[in-house]
Amino acid sequence: MIDYHVHTRLCNHAHGTMEQYIGCAIDKGLSEICFLDHLTLNKQGRDLAMDPVAVPLYIYAARRLAEKYKNRIEVKVGMEVDYTPAHAEEASAILDRFSLDVIGGSVHFVDDENIVSSKNRNSTSSPNAGFYDHYLELLGKLLDYSGFDVICHLDVIKKFGNHPPARFFDKMDEILTRIKYHDLVVEINTSGLSHPAGAVYPAPEILRRCFEKKIPVTFGSDAHRPEQVGRAFQQATAILRNAGYRNLTGFNRRNRYEIPI
Ligand SMILES: [Zn+2]
Ligand SMILES: [Zn+2]
Predict the structure, then answer these.
(1) Is the peptide bond before 202 cis (omega within 30 degrees of 0)?
(2) Which CATH class is domain 2-260?
(3) Is 215 helix (H, G, I), strand (E, B) or coil?
(4) What is the pLDDT of residues 55-83, one digit of tens each?
(5) What is the pTM of this model?
(6) Which of 4, 126, 174, 245 suits a disulfide with 240, CB 3.0-4.6 Å?
(7) What separation in Å is there between the alpha carbon of 108 and the centre of ligand 1?
(8) How far is ligand 2, taken at its centre, from the CA of residue 156, in Å?
Protein backbone atom coordinates (compact mmCIF):
# COMPACT_ATOMS: atom_id res chain seq x y z
CA MET A 1 0.00 0.00 0.00
CA ILE A 2 1.00 3.61 -0.55
CA ASP A 3 0.16 6.88 1.19
CA TYR A 4 0.39 9.91 -1.08
CA HIS A 5 -0.86 12.60 1.27
CA VAL A 6 0.95 13.28 4.53
CA HIS A 7 1.84 16.57 6.16
CA THR A 8 4.66 17.45 8.56
CA ARG A 9 5.24 20.06 11.21
CA LEU A 10 6.67 22.33 8.49
CA CYS A 11 3.10 23.41 7.67
CA ASN A 12 2.60 24.87 11.20
CA HIS A 13 -0.51 22.86 12.05
CA ALA A 14 0.70 19.25 11.83
CA HIS A 15 2.94 17.39 14.24
CA GLY A 16 6.03 15.23 13.81
CA THR A 17 9.16 15.18 11.75
CA MET A 18 9.46 13.72 8.28
CA GLU A 19 11.50 10.86 9.68
CA GLN A 20 8.75 9.99 12.20
CA TYR A 21 6.20 9.76 9.36
CA ILE A 22 8.53 7.52 7.39
CA GLY A 23 9.06 5.31 10.47
CA CYS A 24 5.29 4.86 10.90
CA ALA A 25 4.90 4.09 7.19
CA ILE A 26 7.59 1.37 7.44
CA ASP A 27 5.93 -0.06 10.58
CA LYS A 28 2.63 -0.31 8.69
CA GLY A 29 4.30 -2.08 5.79
CA LEU A 30 3.68 0.66 3.20
CA SER A 31 5.72 0.49 0.02
CA GLU A 32 5.66 4.26 -0.55
CA ILE A 33 5.04 7.47 1.36
CA CYS A 34 4.69 10.87 -0.28
CA PHE A 35 4.89 14.16 1.61
CA LEU A 36 2.26 16.54 0.36
CA ASP A 37 2.67 19.59 2.52
CA HIS A 38 0.62 22.73 2.00
CA LEU A 39 1.42 25.58 -0.33
CA THR A 40 -1.09 28.27 0.62
CA LEU A 41 -0.64 31.80 -0.63
CA ASN A 42 -3.84 33.62 0.35
CA LYS A 43 -3.53 35.70 3.48
CA GLN A 44 -6.12 33.79 5.52
CA GLY A 45 -4.17 30.56 5.08
CA ARG A 46 -0.54 31.59 5.13
CA ASP A 47 -0.13 30.84 8.84
CA LEU A 48 -1.42 27.30 8.24
CA ALA A 49 1.07 26.44 5.55
CA MET A 50 4.75 26.24 4.86
CA ASP A 51 6.51 29.52 4.26
CA PRO A 52 7.27 29.49 0.51
CA VAL A 53 10.93 30.22 1.29
CA ALA A 54 11.08 26.85 3.10
CA VAL A 55 10.06 24.86 0.00
CA PRO A 56 13.65 24.12 -1.21
CA LEU A 57 14.61 22.91 2.27
CA TYR A 58 11.51 20.71 2.44
CA ILE A 59 12.29 19.07 -0.90
CA TYR A 60 15.96 18.66 -0.05
CA ALA A 61 15.10 17.03 3.30
CA ALA A 62 12.67 14.62 1.63
CA ARG A 63 15.22 13.64 -1.05
CA ARG A 64 17.88 13.02 1.63
CA LEU A 65 15.49 10.78 3.53
CA ALA A 66 14.51 8.99 0.32
CA GLU A 67 18.16 8.07 -0.11
CA LYS A 68 18.56 7.06 3.54
CA TYR A 69 15.53 4.75 3.51
CA LYS A 70 15.67 3.56 -0.09
CA ASN A 71 16.07 -0.10 0.89
CA ARG A 72 12.97 -0.03 3.11
CA ILE A 73 10.44 2.30 1.52
CA GLU A 74 10.12 4.73 -1.37
CA VAL A 75 9.90 8.31 -0.15
CA LYS A 76 8.36 10.85 -2.53
CA VAL A 77 7.75 14.56 -2.24
CA GLY A 78 4.98 16.75 -3.59
CA MET A 79 2.83 19.67 -2.52
CA GLU A 80 -0.84 20.17 -1.77
CA VAL A 81 -1.60 23.48 -3.41
CA ASP A 82 -4.40 25.45 -1.91
CA TYR A 83 -6.12 26.67 -5.03
CA THR A 84 -7.33 30.25 -5.02
CA PRO A 85 -7.69 31.93 -8.45
CA ALA A 86 -5.95 35.14 -7.32
CA HIS A 87 -2.80 33.21 -6.37
CA ALA A 88 -2.65 30.62 -9.15
CA GLU A 89 0.12 32.39 -11.07
CA GLU A 90 2.20 32.92 -7.96
CA ALA A 91 1.82 29.19 -7.13
CA SER A 92 2.98 28.24 -10.65
CA ALA A 93 6.01 30.48 -10.35
CA ILE A 94 7.04 28.68 -7.15
CA LEU A 95 6.24 25.15 -8.37
CA ASP A 96 7.98 25.59 -11.73
CA ARG A 97 11.29 25.98 -9.94
CA PHE A 98 11.25 22.49 -8.43
CA SER A 99 11.12 18.88 -9.49
CA LEU A 100 8.33 17.39 -7.40
CA ASP A 101 6.90 13.88 -7.70
CA VAL A 102 3.29 15.00 -7.60
CA ILE A 103 1.23 18.17 -7.24
CA GLY A 104 -2.16 17.98 -5.61
CA GLY A 105 -4.85 20.62 -5.95
CA SER A 106 -7.30 21.38 -3.14
CA VAL A 107 -10.06 23.85 -2.43
CA HIS A 108 -9.88 24.90 1.22
CA PHE A 109 -11.20 28.46 0.98
CA VAL A 110 -14.69 29.37 -0.19
CA ASP A 111 -15.97 32.95 0.12
CA ASP A 112 -12.81 33.75 2.12
CA GLU A 113 -13.68 31.09 4.70
CA ASN A 114 -11.48 28.15 5.53
CA ILE A 115 -13.98 25.33 4.95
CA VAL A 116 -11.77 22.73 6.60
CA SER A 117 -11.43 24.70 9.85
CA SER A 118 -13.80 24.03 12.75
CA LYS A 119 -13.79 27.80 13.27
CA ASN A 120 -15.65 28.50 10.03
CA ARG A 121 -19.28 29.50 10.43
CA ASN A 122 -20.53 26.63 8.24
CA SER A 123 -19.04 24.08 10.62
CA THR A 124 -21.83 24.67 13.12
CA SER A 125 -24.80 25.70 10.99
CA SER A 126 -26.27 24.30 7.78
CA PRO A 127 -24.56 25.95 4.85
CA ASN A 128 -26.79 27.71 2.32
CA ALA A 129 -27.03 26.37 -1.22
CA GLY A 130 -24.75 29.12 -2.52
CA PHE A 131 -21.92 27.73 -0.45
CA TYR A 132 -21.97 24.44 -2.38
CA ASP A 133 -22.26 26.28 -5.70
CA HIS A 134 -19.27 28.45 -4.87
CA TYR A 135 -17.25 25.39 -3.91
CA LEU A 136 -18.07 23.72 -7.23
CA GLU A 137 -17.24 26.91 -9.15
CA LEU A 138 -13.82 26.96 -7.53
CA LEU A 139 -13.30 23.28 -8.31
CA GLY A 140 -14.18 24.07 -11.92
CA LYS A 141 -11.57 26.84 -12.03
CA LEU A 142 -9.03 24.55 -10.40
CA LEU A 143 -9.55 22.07 -13.26
CA ASP A 144 -8.76 24.74 -15.83
CA TYR A 145 -5.44 25.38 -14.13
CA SER A 146 -3.03 22.95 -15.72
CA GLY A 147 -0.58 22.57 -12.86
CA PHE A 148 -2.08 19.63 -10.96
CA ASP A 149 -1.79 15.85 -11.07
CA VAL A 150 -4.24 14.91 -8.31
CA ILE A 151 -7.47 16.42 -7.04
CA CYS A 152 -7.47 16.06 -3.26
CA HIS A 153 -10.52 15.34 -1.05
CA LEU A 154 -13.06 16.13 -3.77
CA ASP A 155 -16.11 16.52 -1.50
CA VAL A 156 -14.40 17.85 1.62
CA ILE A 157 -17.24 20.37 1.80
CA LYS A 158 -19.17 17.70 3.76
CA LYS A 159 -16.46 17.65 6.47
CA PHE A 160 -18.69 18.86 9.31
CA GLY A 161 -21.44 16.34 8.67
CA ASN A 162 -23.66 18.52 6.49
CA HIS A 163 -25.26 16.81 3.53
CA PRO A 164 -24.82 18.47 0.15
CA PRO A 165 -28.09 18.77 -1.82
CA ALA A 166 -28.86 16.25 -4.60
CA ARG A 167 -27.93 18.70 -7.33
CA PHE A 168 -24.41 18.88 -5.84
CA PHE A 169 -23.94 15.28 -7.02
CA ASP A 170 -25.32 16.10 -10.48
CA LYS A 171 -22.90 18.98 -10.80
CA MET A 172 -20.14 16.78 -9.43
CA ASP A 173 -20.78 14.48 -12.37
CA GLU A 174 -19.91 17.35 -14.72
CA ILE A 175 -16.79 17.98 -12.67
CA LEU A 176 -15.79 14.32 -13.03
CA THR A 177 -16.24 14.51 -16.80
CA ARG A 178 -13.86 17.46 -16.82
CA ILE A 179 -11.41 15.66 -14.53
CA LYS A 180 -11.31 12.88 -17.11
CA TYR A 181 -10.93 15.37 -19.95
CA HIS A 182 -7.96 16.97 -18.19
CA ASP A 183 -6.52 13.51 -17.46
CA LEU A 184 -6.27 14.05 -13.70
CA VAL A 185 -6.17 11.58 -10.82
CA VAL A 186 -8.66 11.61 -7.93
CA GLU A 187 -7.55 10.89 -4.39
CA ILE A 188 -9.42 8.69 -1.94
CA ASN A 189 -8.72 10.48 1.33
CA THR A 190 -9.46 8.64 4.58
CA SER A 191 -9.25 11.65 6.91
CA GLY A 192 -13.01 12.10 6.51
CA LEU A 193 -13.57 8.93 8.53
CA SER A 194 -12.22 10.81 11.57
CA HIS A 195 -14.22 13.98 10.87
CA PRO A 196 -17.92 14.58 11.61
CA ALA A 197 -18.54 13.50 7.98
CA GLY A 198 -17.62 9.94 9.05
CA ALA A 199 -16.92 8.96 5.44
CA VAL A 200 -14.09 8.95 2.97
CA TYR A 201 -13.59 11.79 0.47
CA PRO A 202 -15.04 11.46 -2.05
CA ALA A 203 -18.14 9.45 -1.14
CA PRO A 204 -18.26 5.86 -2.45
CA GLU A 205 -21.00 6.80 -4.96
CA ILE A 206 -18.71 9.46 -6.44
CA LEU A 207 -15.87 6.91 -6.61
CA ARG A 208 -18.15 4.56 -8.53
CA ARG A 209 -18.80 7.31 -11.05
CA CYS A 210 -15.05 7.93 -11.23
CA PHE A 211 -14.54 4.29 -12.11
CA GLU A 212 -17.24 4.41 -14.78
CA LYS A 213 -15.44 7.37 -16.31
CA LYS A 214 -12.08 5.54 -16.08
CA ILE A 215 -10.54 8.18 -13.80
CA PRO A 216 -7.42 6.85 -12.04
CA VAL A 217 -7.20 7.10 -8.24
CA THR A 218 -4.53 7.37 -5.61
CA PHE A 219 -4.67 7.00 -1.84
CA GLY A 220 -3.97 9.57 0.90
CA SER A 221 -4.49 9.56 4.67
CA ASP A 222 -3.98 13.34 5.01
CA ALA A 223 -2.00 12.48 8.15
CA HIS A 224 -1.25 15.44 10.38
CA ARG A 225 0.35 13.15 12.98
CA PRO A 226 2.80 10.33 12.23
CA GLU A 227 0.52 7.65 13.67
CA GLN A 228 -2.17 8.61 11.13
CA VAL A 229 -0.05 7.45 8.17
CA GLY A 230 -1.95 4.84 6.18
CA ARG A 231 -5.09 5.52 8.22
CA ALA A 232 -7.91 3.09 7.34
CA PHE A 233 -6.21 1.94 4.17
CA GLN A 234 -7.88 -1.48 4.39
CA GLN A 235 -11.30 0.19 4.47
CA ALA A 236 -10.28 2.42 1.57
CA THR A 237 -9.08 -0.60 -0.39
CA ALA A 238 -12.43 -2.32 0.14
CA ILE A 239 -14.32 0.80 -1.00
CA LEU A 240 -12.13 1.10 -4.09
CA ARG A 241 -12.50 -2.58 -4.98
CA ASN A 242 -16.27 -2.28 -4.55
CA ALA A 243 -16.22 0.66 -6.94
CA GLY A 244 -14.38 -1.56 -9.45
CA TYR A 245 -10.77 -0.42 -9.00
CA ARG A 246 -7.87 -2.88 -9.03
CA ASN A 247 -5.02 -0.35 -9.23
CA LEU A 248 -3.83 2.82 -7.58
CA THR A 249 -1.68 5.43 -9.26
CA GLY A 250 1.82 6.30 -8.06
CA PHE A 251 4.04 9.15 -9.28
CA ASN A 252 7.70 9.60 -9.97
CA ARG A 253 8.71 13.17 -10.96
CA ARG A 254 5.14 13.59 -12.20
CA ASN A 255 5.20 10.42 -14.33
CA ARG A 256 2.46 7.97 -13.42
CA TYR A 257 2.49 4.24 -12.91
CA GLU A 258 0.00 1.70 -11.63
CA ILE A 259 0.17 -0.16 -8.34
CA PRO A 260 -2.14 -3.18 -7.88
CA ILE A 261 -4.37 -3.23 -4.81
ZN1 LIG B 1 -6.41 19.52 2.19
ZN1 LIG C 1 -3.80 17.73 3.35
Answers:
(1) yes
(2) alpha beta
(3) coil
(4) 999 999 999 999 999 999 999 999 999 99
(5) 0.95
(6) 245
(7) 6
(8) 11
